[in-house]
Amino acid sequence: MSNPSSSAQTSTPGERAWALFKVLNDKKLIPAGYIEGLTDLLANKFDPANGARVVAKAWSDPQYRELLLRDGTAACEEFGYTGPQGEYIVALEDTPTLKNVIVCSLCSCTNWPVLGLPPEWYKGFEFRARLVREGRTVLAELGTELPKDMTVKVWDTSAETRYLVLPMRPAGTEGWSEEALSKLITKDVLIGVALPKVG
Amino acid sequence: MDGFHDLGGVQGFGRIPHTINSLDYKKVFKQDWEHLAYTLMFLGADHMKLYSVDEVRHAVERIEFRQQANTQYYERYVIATASLLVELGVLTQEELDEALGSHFQLARPAQSQGRPAITGRPPFEVGDRVLVRDERVTGHIRCPGYVRGKEGVVLHRTTEQWPFPDTIGHGDKSAAMQPTYHVQFSNRDVWGDACDDGFVVVDLFEGYLDKVPQQGGRA
Fold first, then answer.
1. Measured in whole angstroms, how far is the alpha carbon of residue B102 from the centre of its chain?
2. A52: contact with B, CB 8 A cutoff
3. Which residue of chain A is at minimal alpha-carbon distance from B72?
């Protein structure tokens, strides 16, 4: 065995997680309901439907759009969508010639309250390594072909700013309600790897 | 720390395992233990106030290189939390081994005590050209290696300040508070011809940057 770390591992990741839990629990360091309450917040309350409502309102209300682009934290706070990993929020405005995309090359930093916890692929080594250097190629592989005259701007989440993408409102949505518009805003649209599509 | 985690721009990885708008994310925690990674991390960081999230990031970085490459995402945060709790004396390696029934491999010890931030300089302004300091830092740092020594343009200065990661990431509470700057780099300036055209914006602490003197014509 040339790899000391792998030869030492005879347990599974789950067994190791529960072993840590057991030691802390045996020492009575885990308050009743702490794990359950926080898990519910992370898994159920932090959801990309939150970001979808923010974008739909920005598309429908010019004053709110201006606020979102000037002070993203205040705009998201109007909905109550701030919290851990979402305390200093900046919205990135797509234009006909600019496509914004978010990554965290060093770990997985994401705007949790607005986008939900990051999906596996966003935390994967492939996305972290490649997006910053070959954004256009990565987007094409994922299924988003961009026009040649559109510049890709990748935002590496390397400090405390947490981003969301404000995409272009697609044609054919004139007069739609905010609720109908919000259905076009997926998690991948908020990360920036997808464009909102009608139909 | 010039470690495995500093993946931005590393070549040799294949396709991203995803197709846009797949709903795979809908089950947030896919295995019955995954929720423990963040909840136990926050138990120590937020509820017990034992360590900062910066120290958690550095503990993940300190996981042995090959182990880091071979572990799942949430697993690395279990290892990091366990490592910090052992280092802080809250629990012991023996207790973890006994609960597991085999050896619980922790992160490697820190090789640095951290460092203070440069302070006392005037802040940078939007539009300023800045140079990322060409520094090698053995401890924690929130500057991806690919922009080290590169010039960019300031797009935004934050209206809030946070503790310098290279200090607080080592548990040193004397960390200076600093704003960060959204600094835009041209891909060509970073990777020459071996990249797609475009820009990358990195959110950099003030202490990582120097202002480039005005040279005229290059703004």
1. 30
2. no
3. A13
